[in-house]
Amino acid sequence: MGDFRQRIEPLMSFWLRHYYQWRYPNLTIEPGVRIAGKIKLSGSVRVRIAAGTRLRKHSHFFGEGVVNIGRDCLINGCSVGCYRRIDVGDECLIADCYMIDSDFHNSEPHLRHAPLLAKNIRPIRIERNVWLASGSRVLKGVTIGENSVVGLGAVIRRPVPANVVVIGNPEQIVKRFTPAERERAIEELHA
């Protein structure tokens, strides 16, 4: 079964890439993207997915901003609400998490039904090789540094430095990856 899937997936991805780009004119999928799930766009959001990325499960992009997903990522059923800009770096693992760069509504009682104010929208940046675990939430204005891990169900509302593991709500750093640990992991990988 695995061999069959490896042979048929590139062909199915080719057809699905063309179907989704026809279905959603605001969606750009570079050649070489593997699609084994569903993609849904709502609103006027513009989404660009770079080559080598794999899409699994059901991913939903909504809003009116711009989402850029880097090369060689794994997108596994996330929801992305973008009203300005969300950038995901290369080689990221994005599980069934939730990213939103706005508050959806103004918090002031007299403005709650008014159009969203610009102060309530701030872009999100996910740097290279970040892992967002299942159920995590990334809120407006956050940058997550390269090689970091966001744990299961964590709610990220402040910037996360590079090379750390964060968990919880509120988020807290529970581990830092040292250069020696990274080198050891690379050596084990290639052994």
TrEMBL record:
It comes from the Bacteria. InterPro entries: Hexapep, Hexapep_transf_CS, Hexapeptide_acetyltransf, Trimer_LpxA-like_sf. Pfam families: Hexapep (PF00132). Keywords: Repeat, Transferase. GO terms for cellular component: carboxysome. PROSITE patterns: HEXAPEP_TRANSFERASES. Coiled coil: none annotated. GO terms for molecular function: structural constituent of carboxysome shell; transferase activity. PANTHER family: SIALIC ACID SYNTHASE-RELATED. This is Galactoside O-acetyltransferase. It comes from Gloeobacter kilaueensis (strain ATCC BAA-2537 / CCAP 1431/1 / ULC 316 / JS1). The gene is lacA.
